[in-house]
Amino acid sequence: MDYVNGPGRNHLFVPGPVNIPEQVLRAMNRNNEDYRSPAVPALTKTLLEDVKKIFKTTSGTPFLFPTTGTGAWESALTNTLSPGDRTVSFLIGQFSLLWIDQQKRLNFDVDVIESDWGQGANLEVLASKIAEDKSHTIKAVCIVHNETATGVTNNLATVRKILDHYQHPALFLVDGVSSICALDFRMDEWGVDVALTGSQKALSLPTGLGIVCASPKALEASKTAKSVRVFFDWGDYLKFYKLGTYWPYTPSIQLLYGLRAALDLLFEEGLDKVIARHARLGKATRLAVEAWGLKNCTQKEEWFSDTVTAVVVPPHIESSEIVKRAWKRYNLSLGLGLNKVAGKVFRIGHLGSLNELQLLGCLAGVEMVLKDIGYPVKFGSGVAAASAFLQNSTPLIPSRI
Amino acid sequence: MDYVNGPGRNHLFVPGPVNIPEQVLRAMNRNNEDYRSPAVPALTKTLLEDVKKIFKTTSGTPFLFPTTGTGAWESALTNTLSPGDRTVSFLIGQFSLLWIDQQKRLNFDVDVIESDWGQGANLEVLASKIAEDKSHTIKAVCIVHNETATGVTNNLATVRKILDHYQHPALFLVDGVSSICALDFRMDEWGVDVALTGSQKALSLPTGLGIVCASPKALEASKTAKSVRVFFDWGDYLKFYKLGTYWPYTPSIQLLYGLRAALDLLFEEGLDKVIARHARLGKATRLAVEAWGLKNCTQKEEWFSDTVTAVVVPPHIESSEIVKRAWKRYNLSLGLGLNKVAGKVFRIGHLGSLNELQLLGCLAGVEMVLKDIGYPVKFGSGVAAASAFLQNSTPLIPSRI
Amino acid sequence: MDYVNGPGRNHLFVPGPVNIPEQVLRAMNRNNEDYRSPAVPALTKTLLEDVKKIFKTTSGTPFLFPTTGTGAWESALTNTLSPGDRTVSFLIGQFSLLWIDQQKRLNFDVDVIESDWGQGANLEVLASKIAEDKSHTIKAVCIVHNETATGVTNNLATVRKILDHYQHPALFLVDGVSSICALDFRMDEWGVDVALTGSQKALSLPTGLGIVCASPKALEASKTAKSVRVFFDWGDYLKFYKLGTYWPYTPSIQLLYGLRAALDLLFEEGLDKVIARHARLGKATRLAVEAWGLKNCTQKEEWFSDTVTAVVVPPHIESSEIVKRAWKRYNLSLGLGLNKVAGKVFRIGHLGSLNELQLLGCLAGVEMVLKDIGYPVKFGSGVAAASAFLQNSTPLIPSRI
Amino acid sequence: MDYVNGPGRNHLFVPGPVNIPEQVLRAMNRNNEDYRSPAVPALTKTLLEDVKKIFKTTSGTPFLFPTTGTGAWESALTNTLSPGDRTVSFLIGQFSLLWIDQQKRLNFDVDVIESDWGQGANLEVLASKIAEDKSHTIKAVCIVHNETATGVTNNLATVRKILDHYQHPALFLVDGVSSICALDFRMDEWGVDVALTGSQKALSLPTGLGIVCASPKALEASKTAKSVRVFFDWGDYLKFYKLGTYWPYTPSIQLLYGLRAALDLLFEEGLDKVIARHARLGKATRLAVEAWGLKNCTQKEEWFSDTVTAVVVPPHIESSEIVKRAWKRYNLSLGLGLNKVAGKVFRIGHLGSLNELQLLGCLAGVEMVLKDIGYPVKFGSGVAAASAFLQNSTPLIPSRI
């Protein structure tokens, strides 16, 4: 029944789905329950309250859709916009491309700001578009906080500043799929109107929850948005929130308990410490890449992502061979290069429930794969660079002192 | 962390979500995996092949959406129809009502054939509408195979006969949420164009998979259907089927392995034997209801459902009190009466991974609750009626002989 | 990989091993840990403190041996007695027989007081032996609190009274394997010197922990007891207790966490309420047996066991056929008649994590099996008798109010 | 409920208990079962047959005791020897010391051959003792195959040669706790009379099974051996083997299914390949230790252990500080130095379900801890030495090609 064997543990370093902590696996190891009993609403209530903390919002309204990130995108867009509405969207990699594709297919008028893959969103162009848009034809600015395909993190605070500077009322929609719970994200402070993530990313759960959070302004917009929606409609949820039964249709009992456990772990470690841990592991990974003499796909430090690093391979190497080899020989799962960067980069995901030694094992594995594939890496070089940094910066684990 | 305690096992007799077999819980007790490795496609391939068997189709194309039954409805409709298209739909209970509501919100022109709650779909009216529709304005006939709110099973073979008799090309869309894997269902033989179910029903999995199966005619229709769709689009899946990677976005690894285990159990028992078991348990439940002197909400035997029985309570009793009491005192989860039959019926779900003694325990529990609530039930009467039938009709468990 | 299949849940009504609550299964679903880290001693400390509560002792010292009840017996005897020591032991069924056999093989001089199987320990004979033993040649009185083979509960308070009356210093050793956590047991009040149980009984864990509790007098005796012992030696444990590392050899991490969860559940329900629940379920079972016109193997009410009922079948029926049939046809596990009562009785275990509806399902199953096997049972009769009693006596589940 | 938290996975590198593969965790995630049903014997039969393969015996008789290695020792000794019998035993580290202590407490006349801790068993002294023992007063030679405290593997083939050379009939008893399933072990070829291991070692299960295998000669000896034993008696098992019910007392259902899964994994990988993998990981570890400029506690290459490496720290460093620090800061569990080598060595366990990248992560962790503690390690040096070797020697994972 298993399709992946091999001694020891799998080394899962794709940028999602990520490793699930044992505590979460345990919480989900359960039979179904009647979601109309008093117990499931009681649990749900705590989840809705606590999930706001990962968005850093007090005024937002969260929705736990039984879907994936793609569904969460669709929910964000269809609840706030009407067909024909103009959106501004940034094309900087495969996932922003897919979101733009979705926006087009949902019949929005997408104004695409394109950058090289490896660059961040071009906020100067955004500023000029916003400046020019005196009549407020732009209904929403859609941005991927962290482009998973290239390891690029965009500056959301600047987007807010631009909108505020021009007093532009456009909605601010953010894909936080590979950022929320791992990178600094401040929904209220940055005036984000809809933020969303997926359970299998930094929350370290199985796939199956598309978590969407709407600002009061977004909720207001949903009352008049004419995009067709039923499954993804916020209104149905709000109706059941009022009733105190919460669910317009059947939720996954297992994922609800899993989310409870995942949030408990996050708060126990401390959200800010979780973000600091991601910063530490991200930096260690980049130091290793540098020590190997390889280039980060991300072109400037300001965009470096602490959840995923896309590594550019030399021209004579096919990066998908690295990914294949890692999987077949060392039980190591790395991310492929996608679309424009297919064959040119491989990706190391370093998000979710992860610690220093797991990452160092991965880096040592990448070194062996690089050698396998003919790249003249010096064994231990990346690990040394990463270790030197980590040994200086890793705090004691509070629960163990 | 648990919101439902009490000694011993929960007795889950809502008509979904249902009890998950231990084998399935075990199969899902696993870490995430990279769904882009060669392993997940290999697994997926077996699932897509085998899932066709539960629909009894060889020509159909299945889709495993990370969603619920509501999402599966939306997928069935939006992939085959265009806004303004006329559908014929039967209103016979809460779930057919909700599907009709969805059809309206998706901008179809829904021609509703209403019956009393407790009756089956009025196929005579359908026949006359089909007969009249010489110009083929009806694009689809939408029917819930088994109305979970009232315990009514509709006759799908007759629907097909009507369409064939008038050589009407309308698509035949079937909600099999509480029927497939439990009641006799024959996609190919009955010319069903789209059939769908949810994982938490007779498949006995957690919620999270909306399983949709499309006939070649439905696939053809999807090429021109103009309803807006992205997450639920079949085309995206078909593209990835061709590539052999299968998934346009991240699936739940746990549910894939769970589905593998659930299918293995189904085939091991034998789909026809599973259906026979449901017939046995359904009949036993109805005999108990009769012995208690209570009425089945379903008005005629031809509509009796073998997956759920809605029991009408005497006028002076509030059925929701029965459900509350069962849960609070005996750890027994029953289904509430919904909408029009709220307060008037309670429901016993008898579908999925279930056996004789579990059902008899439930029936004994219902007897105690009835007494609790003031109904003059004779203790043991329902159990006796059910037992006499079951003791005569239950075969030996093949794997134990 | 499974050797027992069949739809739905297994109905496990042997008097151990018993059903494991989901919370306990979850707690045990974990990887190994280093038992020499600071974490395992911290956990162990809470276990040793809390496990005393199930013995109702404050002065006792508990030991968690990685063994079974048979090993716990051996630990109780070899730590307190020397070869040739005279013990008084009661032969009333298969398990007391096995313990006596062990005592003989460990070279004690066993003075056996035999009763009919179905009777309790003959305490009058004990009294006369104690009265006569002026020179205190009797070193220990060994008694099985609850004889699992016949469903007989002995009166431990009377044993203590006899010893006290004659101011006899004999050690009082009690097998509480099928009583502790289910029947009223008071180590300190009754002056029990060694009490023991196994994890797979009323604690509702897997097999693997032999839990032994020693009074100060027993500990004192262990200093001079000359029986050979190493694995089962208390001294090795006491040495590690002092060091604060607790384990002379490797414990099962999973069972430690499982025990933690099992104790938490027990205390949450309340030990006295757990005992009351067993009394309720025991009585209900006996009422059913009576309604079937069958005899309880236990000859007097004072000995009726609330954890297991041995049911005598009519002479022309072979009781093992009932057990076989129950397993093969209804997925119901009952206990066989053992040794002297083989073929003559079958046993219904009603201990551990169990509730009313599970038991009623079992009773309904037994009715069908009886009919299968040719006994003219009236369907529903036992269930009715049990239900009438339970419906009157079952309290609301506190955590659900 | 958890006593060990911290983000990411624990890095468990003590020489037992070791990491449990997910497949085994899954197999054990189950409710109890009636061990007297036909299913458990059917499962047990396959286990007894297959477990012989890990001992490389066809003539041996295995026993699966619900106990630990310490209990397995006791079973080996008490079933084959009588009080006063002379044994020859080698004192080379903490575990051989404990076994010798047990032998003494069980009243055997132990003839101890002592070596420096870090040396193997002195087989020359054995040879001279055997040579001198014309009257065959030596009843058993007891040897620890792999001394876990010092990382020393003894040469069992030579022991057999010595016994054969002098045609000495002494029983040959082997503690294979940290060798069997990991190091080359050949019960039949080497004429081992009793071999034993524990489930939490190379079998990668939880603690709880003491697996003992007896040669025909050992079985014969058990008929006359006068050591007192009940729980550990082979005779009771043999009686139940004959009956086909296999268990004299209650086994752990979960461990039986776990053992089934563990054996399936072992045979799937191939026992010889498992042993080769241990050789590879052992060598890699030793290369790292050398690169760090540290000494292996094992004094000669012929004794190097492929399951555990004891690393000697410089005199000014307290090795237990390394172990503490590793656990508190990096979630890394290493083995302490025990007894004579306490404070002087720390141990890296590299046995059981383990792969290259896990080991490299551990080695990187040790480097950071060494630096933490003030040892001037060069970052990456050990990893580089190990990686260079592993990259050359690691085969592709067969199930992934």
TrEMBL record, chains A, B, C, D:
The catalytic activity of this protein is classed by the Enzyme Commission as: 2.6.1.44
Keywords assigned by UniProt, alphabetized: Aminotransferase, Pyridoxal phosphate, Transferase
Q: What class of enzyme is it?
A: transferase
Q: What SUPFAM superfamilies does this protein's entry cite? A: PLP-dependent transferases
Name all Aminotransferase class V domain ranges. 16-297
Q: Which domain of life is it from?
A: Eukaryota
Entry-linked InterPro entries: Aminotrans_V_dom, Aminotrans_V_PyrdxlP_BS, PyrdxlP-dep_Trfase, PyrdxlP-dep_Trfase_major, PyrdxlP-dep_Trfase_small, SP_NH2Trfase/AEP_transaminase
Name any cofactors this protein relies on: pyridoxal 5'-phosphate
Is the keyword Transferase in the record? yes
The record's family statement is: Belongs to the class-V pyridoxal-phosphate-dependent aminotransferase family.
Name under which the protein is recorded: alanine--glyoxylate transaminase
